[in-house]
Predict the structure.
Amino acid sequence: MFDLRNILSIGQNSMIRHVVQNSDTFSNYSKDLNELLATPACVEMAIKASVETVDQYLPEGFVSIGHSTEFTHTAPTSLGMTITIKASIIDLTDHEVTLQIEAWDDQGEVGHGIHKRVVVNHEALIKKARQRTRFLTNRKI
């Protein structure tokens, strides 16, 4: 394995800008909130920005996978507004990346949090997943 501190650096970041659409709203959860950006959509964008910050710099055969996410949604964002999500590396170990998440729209901050990703060998990850799946398909219910 390699040391991420030799590939990535503190402060490295990516930003995503997105116009809030119907598919991003709470309409999947509550018809009364169908004009507001849903928290899961914010978290999805935060994860996407985090992957963009990390994965393009990894050696071939390695990927980052989500380990944990803590996100606080502090203000509503309406349909049609532009939201920006920034993921910045704030800590690195030999195989784990911690990113600070900042989210804002046209009016100011709408959320913040921490997202951790672990770098793994892609082939080993797929092998482990297939082994787990085989266990389930061989189990008699």
User: Anything to note?
Assistant: The CA atoms of residues 7 and 57 lie 7 Å apart. The mean pLDDT is 93. The two ends are 40 Å apart (CA to CA).
